[in-house]
């Protein structure tokens, strides 16, 4: 119990620090005077909250859920993604869907996958040719798979350190969840870049659509 309480307090402090560091990097200018952008951010945040409904809370105390972190990163950038996912963790907390509490849940389902997702997106932009198919496949599908894998690995390490029952389920479920998160992310990004590319902050028409 002491280790659990210590983890929750430490994770809460780290989560607040991460969110505070993200505040100066929030691109508010993209929302000012743009009702559509404001609605898209609000609807996306609601969708991230609804993803928590698909949760294995009753399976041996193990909590597995898709995060949507890579979609949030590609659409809004890392700062807005962190805050949108923080809302999801906070809303999930009273209903028992926040993994080990709001602080640990935020770190596992937001901070870790967002950090990995943003690093992966930057890497792809530097190393891959500006191709629409590669954007959806590599940044969307593969990026989503890597993000959920990082999230589940973080949960496994913490659960194993705390000697929680069912810790191994986080690793066992990861391959299937990687496929599910990849399909979710890649499918969402394919629809967005085709029908509403201006919703996606990391997608540049001049880079991906106009021939050189």
Automatic annotation (TrEMBL):
Q: Which residues cross the membrane?
A: 36-54, 66-93, 99-120, 132-150, 170-195
Q: Which UniProt keywords are present, listed alphabetically?
A: Cell membrane, Membrane, Transmembrane, Transmembrane helix, Transport
Name the InterPro entries on file.
CbiM/NikMN
* Locations listed in the record: Cell membrane
The topology of this chain with respect to the membrane is: Multi-pass membrane protein
What the entry lists under Pfam families is as follows: CbiM
Which coarse location class describes where this protein primarily resides? membrane
Q: Does the keyword Ligase apply?
A: no
Name by which UniProt lists this protein: Energy-coupling factor ABC transporter permease
Q: Give the organism, scientific name.
A: Pseudoxanthomonas mexicana
């Amino acid at each position: 119990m002491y280790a659990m309480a210590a983890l929750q307090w430490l994770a809460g402090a780290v989560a607040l620090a991460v969110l505070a560091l993200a505040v100066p990097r929030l691109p508010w200018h993209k929302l000012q005077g743009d009702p559509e952008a404001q609605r898209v951010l609000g609807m996306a945040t609601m969708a991230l909250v609804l993803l928590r409904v698909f949760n294995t809370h009753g399976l041996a105390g193990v909590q597995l859920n898709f995060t949507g972190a890579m979609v949030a990163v590609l659409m809004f950038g890392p700062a807005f993604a962190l805050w949108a996912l923080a809302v999801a963790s906070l809303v999930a907390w009273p209903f028992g869907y926040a993994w080990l509490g709001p602080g640990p849940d935020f770190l596992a389902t937001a901070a870790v996958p967002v950090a990995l997702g943003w690093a992966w997106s930057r890497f792809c932009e530097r190393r891959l040719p500006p191709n629409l198919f590669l954007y959806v496949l590599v940044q969307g599908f593969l990026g989503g798979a890597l993000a959920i894998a990082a999230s589940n690995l973080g949960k496994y390490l913490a659960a194993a350190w705390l000697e929680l029952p069912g810790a191994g389920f986080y690793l066992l479920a990861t391959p299937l969840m990687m496929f599910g998160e990849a399909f979710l992310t890649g499918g969402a990004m394919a629809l967005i870049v085709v029908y509403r590319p201006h919703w996606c902050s990391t997608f540049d028409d001049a880079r991906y659509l106009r021939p050189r």
